[in-house]
Amino acid sequence: MEWDVLVIGSGFGGAIVGSRMAEKGARVLMLERGRWWDKAAGPGRSAYPRGIGDPWIWNQAAPERENGWIDFRTFPRMSVIQGAAVGGGSLIYANISAEAPRSAFDGGWPPELTYEELKPHSDRVAAFMGVMPIPDGQWTERMKFMQRSAAAIGEPARFQPLELAVAFDPQWRYAPDGSTERVEASRRFVNAHGVEQGTCVHLGNCDIGCEADAKNTLDRNYIPMGIRHGMEVRPLHIVRGLEPWPGGGYLVHFDRILNGVLIRGEARARQVVVSAGSLGSTELLLRCRDEHRTLDRLSPRLGERWCSNGDFLTPAFYPGMAPLHPSKGPTISSAINFLDGSQGERFWIEDGGFPNLLADQARKLSQGRVRNLRAKLLVEVFQRLLREHPEPFPHVMPWFAQGMDRAKGVMDLRRRFWFFGQRRLRLDWELSSGKAVVDAIIAMHKRLTEATGGTFHAPMNWDLAHHLVTPHPLGGCAMGRGPAEGVVDHAGRVFGHEGLFVADGAIIPRALGVNPSRTIGALAERVASLM
Ligand SMILES: Cc1cc2nc3c(=O)[nH]c(=O)nc-3n(C[C@H](O)[C@H](O)[C@H](O)COP(=O)(O)OP(=O)(O)OC[C@H]3O[C@@H](n4cnc5c(N)ncnc54)[C@H](O)[C@@H]3O)c2cc1C
């Protein structure tokens, strides 16, 4: 065998299993479909997309043409956002590192997996990724508003600051003239894994890559540790299928994106870990079972028990109030916790935020060489807009939430037309599996808005079409006690195929009600410890 372990995908599942296995001395190859992104492009690296025309979008149907870092998929009633990058979703996530509550282990898991069993692994992820809440003295306006809002509905004890995978400088403070909210105000340092980073200066760009390097993303902690132990990482490698190799191990087929074309290749490994995310891992295994017919013993439960983790966002408007600055500071910072089920459903409310793309566009344009009169005029227009409206929506509060919906979604492969066309991934998500928790979240968003003097607007995608958008897909290759119940066991081992594992959000058999990356990471730590 060329490799001891081949890992498909480099998000919270793949980065952690791959790096831990390399640390144990295994020869590890990691194949990642996305690019290796960096703040500034360098050899083998692509600069973070910033302006119009930059590579934002990953196109699953034509990745050789469009291989940006956001993979946005739409299905009936549900859209899903995922990352495509070395470091997976961590490059574009909001850095919240939340431990799954005890109530998330009430049912649905194999008996080996309890809150107590996962806790040390969850603590290990937190320590390795350097998580901490926003330091005192640096709270954003939205965070202070969250605390006031919890008090306004008579529930002050439910407010809690959240842990973030972000590097903070305890000395940093907001300045009235905004002078500390600049990359130059960030303090440079070398992190525990030997990677240079900067401290957070509240640029508000967590979801589009931080110019100050303050996000503790997987390409700055776990992946460098794996590389130090000999792990090889190959970006722009899309795994298309795998088949058992006579005598043990697997042959993995991939397409490499090179200069706008796809080049076929293959690699052999003794053990294979599928960590392509909830949709990616499920699609790959469905193709191996139903299309290539190379893994025919996969469980009939493959594709089932999918959920959106009850994600929902409601914008509220506060025109007469002091600005809430949703584009300043870490994107999410705190929660108002109703995971105890006191409202009939289990959920928590978070403060949301969004990047000021207008400011980024203007900065990018003014930094570049302005070649002609049209470009000069465009820069002028952007700069004037920015002078007049430095922040486009300062009085908006994006109330965000996650909740425990029912994991009843099902994925399979279907042809576009009855007998013709390629088989494509389909997600069948029933409204009934999420409606109760979404309605409870909307009611709480409304109560919070009214108690704080704002104007409430339920989003049109829900009001008119009952369509949800989730960045937290879970399930598809769920854990179970045997193949009649799930696709993998409690240690991520695929039933029926020795040496094959799944480790990522796909194995989580139910909604967690909180942001899932910490739990995915904890499960990956546990999978690696048992391999
Ligand atoms: C905008 C946004 C904000 C978020 N904020 C938070 C947050 O604050 N806190 C939190 O906990 N979670 C957050 N999430 C969710 C979090 O990012 C995901 O839950 C997490 O990344 C999932 O980890 P994973 O290992 O399952 O998959 P991923 O991190 O998605 O990793 C899967 C990797 O596999 C690669 N891949 C897929 N198919 C293939 C293939 N065929 N061949 C090779 N490689 C492949 C993908 O490119 C990807 O890099 C956010 C997500 C988004 C989109």
Please name the defining characteristics of this protein:
single chain; FAD/NAD(P)-binding domain; binds flavin-adenine dinucleotide; globular; alpha/beta; 531 residues; six-stranded antiparallel β-sheet; 10 helices; seven-stranded mixed β-sheet
Topology (elements, then pairings):
Elements: E1 3-8, H1 12-23, E2 28-31, E3 37-38, E4 46-47, E5 70-75, E6 78-83, H2 115-129, H3 141-152, E7 159-161, E8 188-190, E9 196-198, H4 222-228, E10 232-234, E11 237-244, E12 250-258, E13 261-274, H5 277-291, E14 312-317, E15 334-338, E16 347-351, H6 357-367, H7 373-388, E17 396-403, E18 410-415, E19 423-428, H8 435-451, E20 455-456, H9 460-463, E21 468-470, E22 500-502, H10 517-530
Parallel strand pairs: 1-2, 1-13, 2-10, 3-4, 6-21, 13-22
Antiparallel strand pairs: 5-6, 7-15, 8-9, 11-12, 12-13, 14-17, 14-20, 15-16, 16-17, 18-19
Helix pairs in contact: 1-4, 1-10, 2-10, 6-7
The structure holds flavin-adenine dinucleotide.
Flavin-adenine dinucleotide is lined by residues 8-14, 31-34, 81-85, 88-89, 92-96, 207, 238-239, 275-278, 280, 284, 332, 471-472, 504-505, 515-517, 520.
